[in-house]
Amino acid sequence: MIRKLTLVLASVTLVTSAVAVAQTQAQTQYFPVFSYRTGPYAPNGIPSADGIVDYMALLNERDGGVGGVKLVTEECEFGYNTKRGVECYERLKSKGPVIVMPYSTGLTYKLLPSAAKDKVVVLTVGYGRTDASDGRVFPWAFTTPTTYWSQASAFVKYMGAQSGGMKRLKGKKIALIYHNSAYGKEPIPTLQTLAKRLGFKLTLLAVDHPGQEQKATWLKIRRLRPNYILLWGWGVMNQVAIKEAANIGMVKRMIGVWWSGAEQDVAPSPKAAIGYRAGTFHAAGRDFPIFKDIDKYVYGRGKGTNKSSVGQILYNRGMVNAIFATEAMRGAQKKFGVKRVNGDQMRWGMENLNITAARWTAMGLKGFMAPIKNTCADHEGNGPVMIQRWNGKVWKIISKPISPMQNVIRPMIEASAAAFAKKNGITPRKC
Amino acid sequence: MFYREAGQFSTTYSQDQGIWSIKQDKWATFAIIGFAFFIIPLFASPYLLTVLLQLLVGCMAALALNILTGYCGQISLGTAGFMGVGAFAGYKFATGMRVLGGDGGAVTAATELVPMIPAVENIFVAILLAGAVTAAFGILFGLPSLRIKGFYLAVATLAAQFFFQWSFIRFEWLYDYASSSTIQAPRLSLMDGWVLPFKVPWFTWDLQFFWGTVDFTMKVSGPGYADKLHQYLIGLIFVVLFGFIAKNLMRGRIGRSFMAIRDMDIAAELIGIRPLRTKLLAFGISSFMAGIAGAMTLFLYLEALEGAEAFFILDSFLFLFMVIIGGLGSIMGTYLGAAFITLLPIFMVNFLPWAGGLVGMSINTATVEHIQLMVFGGLIIFFLIVEPLGLARLWQISKEKLRQWPFPY
To answer: Which residue in A has a C-alpha nearest to residue B113's C-alpha?
Structure first.
């Protein structure tokens, strides 16, 4: 009897769930979210994921999705661990994602080849593999709006301007403290090239994962007395580095990568960190009309993830991710006249992404970010980098948008991509 | 009732010494192997294959550690480090030991690398060579075991782990001077171009029948190129093969000398077992297998990896958990432990949100992670208290019970 009942029940659920799946698939677009709300990088991972999920929820609640298609997000916790990220990717692949945002440079390296095979766009906003900006070799990868190499060159430009001209950089001592991983090593080729060209002395100091142990590094800094310190950290490594810099009164000489310049990083020592600068490509805070909508439609209706995250730097950056993905989807819907977009269409949407100043204003984000335009060959979109400073309470942008040294960076990207293409037997497409 | 040896007699000594004392065990083993080789390919999704590949690597590494720690009593916390050696050795062999060409100036993306030897294109050869290199390193790092024992040896192997992690970043030659310090498995295939010249009814590797030209090519490695199913089959061949090798080694003279050293090294020496040779042999065999597990990680499972991250200290601990939970000094237990540690978190990640959905609760991913850690920790403690000898012992007990069922006395 019970056996029969179970059988009947099981078959009923199976049938209904199959019907439900068929129904939802017609009207929804599926977005996997690779998040890390646990582990050593959780303080940074939480607002990042919140920003993505909340923005998609906003579009669902306020506009009924994108072009009438509801957005479905599903998080996969991978703890910033590449192996588990791979497991996530394989698990969620069956649900038909057309774009992934791995939020980890290590995972990006792993996913790039398989995603291209599966026709899934890999969007790495401000991280990932820099030479993937060459759309001729990496059609499926997008590093919009800017990359580590671009940022490193913008930092050099900024330091040059601060010292009174690029010529003055000659003989200056610059130290790079980096997370000893694919992520942290990204800026090194750029900085080395520029060091040779401009004549500054570059010292490389690696910090091993997860980054608490920096005593030896800062002993070297003490001895070196560099004019500038560049910090390429993530997670707990940033907090430790800022504290150590504050201890020896060097916090004002330190400039962090955009992943080292969030509220979390200065939280343990907000006073000591005053004057610490970091890169960014978008504004901080919640003084934009869109946040009223987020309060009203997302949190007002109980659809939000984490109210305390809203407006934080990493939250806003998560939003940038979601905006790029959904704007690309919007463009693809218009171009192909479809509702639900597939991988190829999403790729077209990313490649033809064009967010003008007017569009940023229309989204309720006036002055939030510079306009972005991708092309077939350039998947980076040439976004400028800005410098922000911690004033003890909030991050304030203190510089004009600095455009990276494209004349230096682009040839490096193309050379590196060409080398990759040659090694892997890829014929670059014509653009 | 079904599981008993009534009517099974050994009539020769070799029968008496067989691996399986009961026929049912033999059939079950071959049924499982047959299932893994022929049935799983029929329905396996890429996701399942990814999980299984992870499991195969886990089995191989745990087997390596169990030989060293479980059979020979030498505690090692360096398994992941030795696996890393295997991965990098495999990579260097498969790419022809490239070195920097040109004038030796600053390395840029365009710098040419020159192979020193012809690249090894056969995956079996590449993986076995990787094992051999790792075995050499294992013997080297096993030397301290002659002087230090127990916890102190654990610390020494921990040092090996850290040393390897450090070298995977510092020695740029290992990753071909890539600015990201990432290595990527080269494209490897087996039976490339083995095509039957005429059309026949045949089946593909996932046993789909078709009528046409048969292509035996197996795409075994290379991101974006390899076929997961082919990788799974290659991995399975290694695990089954080395399972049998390990089982037989451990039953014979070598295994017995290991166990003698483990149980009391002075007594072992007195009965004529040379500690130097035996311990180093254990380190050699174990790291040979660990190297194979590492090369499997590179070629079959991850395909692109960062040495220090993929072979992190925590992985070494996980392998140690596998053999402790599975059962020290048991081949069967190794597999049980590897399956338990590898599959439980994956099961929980898939199961908890579904279970929550049944009672109308949406469990967010962070909570799942926390619950998983708690359950995981709880289960480890539970097993250690209830059955300190591991899953293998539980299996043995249930086998005894099964023999008497349904009439226990």
So the answer is: A423
